Amino acid sequence: MSHEYVPEIATSRDGKEHEVQGWQGDFYGGKLGFWLFMLTEVMMFGAMFLVLTYYFSLHHADFLEASSELNRVLGGTNTVILLISALTMGLGLLKMRNGDVKGAKLMIWATILLALIFLGIKAVEWTHEYQHGVFLGLDALQSGNAHSKPLGQILFFGMYFTMTGLHGFHIIIGIGLMLWLLKRINAGKVTTEHHILHFNIALYWDLVHLIWVFVFPYFYMIGAGDIAGGVINAH
Amino acid sequence: MSKTYFDETHCAIGHPKSTFMQWMLTVDHKRIGLMYAAVIFTFFFVAVAVAFTMRLELFSPGQQFLDPDTYNQAFTLHGVIMVFLFIIPGIPAVFGNIVMPLMIGAKDVSFPRLNWFTFWLYIFGALIALSSLWTGNGFADTGWTFYAPYSLNTNTNVITTLVAAFVLGMASILTGLNFLVTIHRLRAPGMDFFKMPLFVWGIYATAWIQLLATPVVGITLILAILEKTFGIGIFDPSKGGDPVLFEHLFWIYSHPAVYLMILPAFGIMSEIIPVFSRREVFGYRTIALSSAAIAGIGYLVWGHHLFTSGMSDLAKVIFSFLTFLVAIPTGIKFYDWVATMYKGKIILSVPMLWALGTMITFVIGGLTGVTIAMVGADIHLQDTYYTVAHFHYAMLGGVVFLFFAGLHYWFPLVTGKMYPEGKAKLAFYLNFIGFNVLWFPMFIAGYLGMPRRYFDYLPEFEIYHRIAFFGAIIFIVGLVYMFYVLIQAWKNGEASGTNPWHATTLEWHLPSSPPPLENHTKVPYVDFRPYEYHHGEPVVKFDYKTMKRID
Amino acid sequence: MLTNYKTLKAGYYKVLIGLLVLTTVTFVQPHMFLTGHIFATQIFIGLAKAWIILMYYMHLKGEVLIGKTVIFSVALVTFFFLVVVIDVEHFQFKDASYIASHEQSDVSHATSHED
Lengths: 235, 551, 115
Prior knowledge:
Chain A has helices spanning 27-58, 60-68, 72-97, 101-131, 151-186, 196-221, and strands spanning 9-11, 17-19, 227-228, 231-232. By secondary structure, chain A is mainly alpha-helical. Chain B has one domain: Cytochrome C Oxidase, Chain A, CATH 1.20.210.10.
C-alpha cells in the first residue's frame, strides 16, 4: 500500500545520507507520467490537423465554402460551455487541495453536467446535418452521384465528423473518468493529501478543452468571412 | 539458499497461492520481461516458418504450392508478426524490463501495475492479429505497410489487423512512458544522466520514440479503419483523397520505428564491448548523445520511403539530405566502439562474437541504406530485393543479432546458469554464415531488377533464390540450435555465480544469481562512472550486505 | 489547507475572463479586422488561448522538464506540418491529377466526371 511506504536511505562514502526515490508515493512521477501520456494525444490530434491542413492546401475554396455551412451559434455555444467546464474542473481541484472535499465533488458534478450539455448540443448539430443529407455514408459525401458535393467539401465534412467525433469520444471518456474519480473520493482513496488522480483528471479535461480551442476555429470560423459577388473573400 | 524472483513475487490483484496465477498477475519487472521473451520468441519462430514457406515457393519460377493471393498474405503475415509482435516490443520489452531497472539501482519501474496491464494489452493485440488468420477472407494481403487505396478495397481482414496494430501500438506507448518516468525518477542517488550505463541511454532514447511517434501511426490506422467503414474520403482518390498522404502518415511513425528497434540494440553493443575488451568505453558522452541525436533526427527522414511516390522534388531533396545526416551519429558509435577495443584485452566469449558479427552485418545494412538514400539510385532500387536485403541486414543482422548477443550476455543474470561455450559458438557460426548466404545474393538480385513482394520471377533470377534458399536452411538450423542450447543450459547448466563476466554495471552487483525479488539489498550511492576498469579488472567493489563500496 | 486559496481562486477567474474575451474576439474577427487573413488570425488567437490554458490552468508555468517535453513535441508536429504542406504546395502533377483539378468556389453542385 502506497500509504505505508518508507523510503530507503543510501549513504555516500563521506557519510551523507540520501533519500532513495521509490516508485511508491511519487507525486511528481505521477504528474510526469500523465503529461507524457497527454503528449501522445497531442501527436494524435496533431496528425489529424495535418491531414486537414493537407487538404485545406489542396482544396482551399471548397473548405471555406463547406465551413460556412456549419452552425457557428451552436459551435460557439459549445466553446463557451467547454470553457466554463474547464473552470469548474480547476476549481474542483483547488477545493480538494484546500480540504473542501464536498465542494470539490460539487464542482466535478458541475463539470459532468456541462460536458453532457456539450454532447447534447453536438448531437443536435449532427442531427441537423444528417437531416440535410450531409453525413457519412449519405449521397452528398459520396462521389459521382447527383447530390455529390465537390471533392474538397467531401473531404472537409469527412474530417469534420471524424475529428468532432473523436473529440466527443474523448469527452465521453472524460465523463467516465470523472465518475470514477467521484467513486474514489467517496471510498477515501483520493484525499487532500493524496490527490494525484484528481490532478491528472483535471489535466486531462484541460487537454480536451485545448483540442477544441483549435478544432472550433479550423472548422467553424475559416468560412466566416463575407461573401462578395459569389466569391468568398477570406485569407 | 536465499530466495530469488522465481520463488516469490508481487501481484497486481490480491495474493494468489497458485504458481500459475502468480505468473499471470505478477507486477515484477523481471518476470514480466521473461514472459515477454517467451511470447516474443514464439512469434519469431512462427514468422520464420512463414518466411521459409515463401522461400520454398520461390525456389523455382512459377507456382510451386502457394497461389499468388496466399503468397501476398504470407509476406503480410511475416511482416506484421516480425515488425509489430517481435521486433518493436523486442529488446525494450525483454531487456528494458529485466535489466534497465537493475542498472539504475531501482526496485522496479515507476508504474509496475501499468507494466502488468501493458503486457496483457500486448497479448490482446497479438491475439486479435492472429485471429484474422481464421476469420472472414483470411489474413490481410496488403503487405505490412497497408498502402491505400489497395488496403481500402481488398476484402481480406485488413480492419482486424489495423485494430490489432493499434492495440499493440498502445502497448508500445505505455512501455515507453513507463521507462521514461522510471529513468527520470528512480535512478539511484548520485547517478546523474551521464553516469547511467549506455544501455539505459539506448532505452531512454527509444522510449521517446515509442511515446511520440507511435500515436501518429495510431491515428493513421484509425483513419484507415474509418475510411474503410464510413468512407470519409481522405485516402480514397475517387473522393479527392490522396494515397500519398497515407504513405506520409504511415512512415512518419514507421521510420522512427526502425530507430526504436536499433537504439536498444546499440545499447547492448555498448554494454558488451567494454566488458569483453576489459576497458572503459571510449567516448561515453558521445555515444550517449548520439543515441539522442539518432532519435531526434530519425523523426525527420521518413520521406525517403516515398521517393518514388510522386512526392515533390523539393521534398525529396530535403529528405535525402536529412537521411544522410542521420547516418552520422551511427557512424560515430561504431568508431567509438572500435576505439574501445583498441589496445584492449579482447575476450572472444559468445556475447562478444555476436557483437563483432553484428558490426560486420550492420555496417553492410547501414551503408546499403545510404545507397538508397540517394534519390537517383533509389529510383532504380526502390521495391527491389536490394531494399529487402538492406533492411534485413539492418534489422536481422543488426537488431536481432544484438538481441541474441544480449541473450547470451544476460543469460547468467536471468537464469543463474551458464551455457556451454563451444555449442553456443557453433550456433553463432551457423547463424552468421547462414544469414549471409541467405541475404547477400539478394543485393545482387535486386540490383539486377528482382522486384520485392513478387510471387513469380524471370528465370535469370533463379540462381539467387536457390543460393538464398540454402542459406535459409543453414540459418534456420542455427536459430533452432541456438535456442536448444540455451534452453538446455537453463534446465541442466552449471551455476554461473553473480558476475561471471567481471562486468562493472549495477545489474551484476546483486546478492544472488538469479536476483532476489527486491533487486539490490540496499540501493547504493553511485559516485562512479559505469565502466571503470583498471588493468582489465573492475575498480568498484561492493559489500553485498550493505551495498557500500569496499575498494 | 492552502494559505493562498483566495489568490489562486481569483487567478482561475481571471483566466476565465481572458479566455472569454479571446472567444469573443474569435467571433467578431472575421467581420472586424484582418478580414483578409482569417485563417492565420484565428489560429493565432487559438495559440494565445492555448498558451494561457497551458500556463495557468495546466500549471505549466514553472515546470522545467515537462515544459521542455511539450516544446519538443509541438516542434516535432510543426516540422511534420511544414514538410507535408511544402510537399503538397509543390505538387508536381497537379494539372494531371484527378484529386487536384476540381477546384470549385461556387455553391455545391453535382460533379460527374468521365475519365
